[in-house]
């Protein structure tokens, strides 16, 4: 699905790779007994230790031991006891954000295509799933609503997981997979966007596409309901299911995350000017937050983006068929531009999106007058951007995220707030102007607490007025904006998924009321640009990919001459 990545050979075959087999781990996934503990396969230490092992190994049963193993086992035993008490009380309540993703107009699913460097070893994959995903509380629970209560809140209730219900082998036409395997994968992904998922089972599936494409020897598709967790949670879990390709006995190293804390007051020795600047920074923060909150509320009620080719053509786009297309970009090129422009990687992504949308817009509107293109400087489209509001940003170790203590700053869940991020459509002679605009936009949003406000105000609205009111406000915000935008940092080293070398990771989302969703996913030295588009509205989705790729090429070229 990446024709632009192989200019010399439009349909190269993936090189043959030897699959490194990993030892299967026998895990008891049977239903718990009345005390909430697993049927113990360790009679010497009893059900409690079995529950403790289940909790402590949620990051992957193949994680290496450490000197603090006994201490972690004791802590995990306490978590196991708390979990038993929770289950006896009827399960864990769903968070407001998780409940939002159940609403009719926000029934959102995450779908991720994972390209592999070897054919799929189904038995190795099953053993890996039993040792990791099946043991995770969210991936072994069903959503149950309180019976007998008119406004009962849904809960997570643990259940037995039958992998045969979750590992899918699609019956695809062999002629189609042989003639154009990339198109076969793309069409199959598109069909999933309108395929229902059985809510009587844990809400995840692994689809096996065991045939070579232009980029990989095989592929798997992981589809899961967004109520299971946000992008940070799910990607952290996915990384816990992988191992370093260089050393299959260890977990991959997590990419570093910059601290998010604001600087405290300067010391008195710094002088009056430093104190004034510190106070001024908080005044700016308060003002920008107020402006953004007013804009957010206005957008939820009435403030609508102008009509462009990117806006949903009609209501009900969240129910229509989506198409997922992706293109591999060079992370080295992105970092070259970042260093040349003294900005961040995300600033470059925003700038490239500005440029790609502009190229597509002016071609679709058939405006060939260069002077008129330059004069159209007020064509602005806005995106909904989900922001991780955890105090500790970035990917975290899964064991850390599963800590249920109140002071855990990186715990599992849908801990996300919304911000409205503008993109500017314009024709610039200097391609670097798109990056400057992107940097300006990003720096402005960094001096605002809009995401924190939308998260906590959303929770408050749910408590005071109910989920329907909160969903109505979110629906207004989505339908009055143009698109969704996101980016995620992935492993910085090559990893294996249950013994299968990973070639690429291409995630996206569907079920929300936007006709266009743009996502950037980094992995080692590449970036996957993934577009989720309304299948009927964007028949030329690959041309839109070309516009993004060409924009990055021109920006990289311009940056090399600065």
UniProtKB/TrEMBL annotation:
<dbReference type="InterPro" id="IPR004255">
    <property type="entry name" value="O-acyltransferase_WSD1_N"/>
</dbReference>
<dbReference type="GO" id="GO:0047196">
    <property type="term" value="F:long-chain-alcohol O-fatty-acyltransferase activity"/>
</dbReference>
<protein>
    <recommendedName>
        <fullName>Diacylglycerol O-acyltransferase</fullName>
    </recommendedName>
</protein>
<dbReference type="Pfam" id="PF03007">
    <property type="entry name" value="WS_DGAT_cat"/>
</dbReference>
<dbReference type="GO" id="GO:0005789">
    <property type="term" value="C:endoplasmic reticulum membrane"/>
</dbReference>
<keyword id="KW-0012">Acyltransferase</keyword>
<dbReference type="InterPro" id="IPR045034">
    <property type="entry name" value="O-acyltransferase_WSD1-like"/>
</dbReference>
<keyword id="KW-0808">Transferase</keyword>
<feature type="domain" description="O-acyltransferase WSD1 C-terminal">
    <location>
        <begin position="412"/>
        <end position="555"/>
    </location>
</feature>
<dbReference type="GO" id="GO:0004144">
    <property type="term" value="F:diacylglycerol O-acyltransferase activity"/>
</dbReference>
<comment type="pathway">
    <text>Glycerolipid metabolism; triacylglycerol biosynthesis.</text>
</comment>
<comment type="similarity">
    <text>In the N-terminal section; belongs to the long-chain O-acyltransferase family.</text>
</comment>
<dbReference type="GO" id="GO:0005886">
    <property type="term" value="C:plasma membrane"/>
</dbReference>
<feature type="domain" description="O-acyltransferase WSD1-like N-terminal">
    <location>
        <begin position="118"/>
        <end position="349"/>
    </location>
</feature>
<dbReference type="InterPro" id="IPR023213">
    <property type="entry name" value="CAT-like_dom_sf"/>
</dbReference>
<keyword id="KW-0256">Endoplasmic reticulum</keyword>
<feature type="region of interest" description="Disordered">
    <location>
        <begin position="1"/>
        <end position="98"/>
    </location>
</feature>
<comment type="pathway">
    <text>Lipid metabolism.</text>
</comment>
<dbReference type="Pfam" id="PF06974">
    <property type="entry name" value="WS_DGAT_C"/>
</dbReference>
<dbReference type="InterPro" id="IPR009721">
    <property type="entry name" value="O-acyltransferase_WSD1_C"/>
</dbReference>
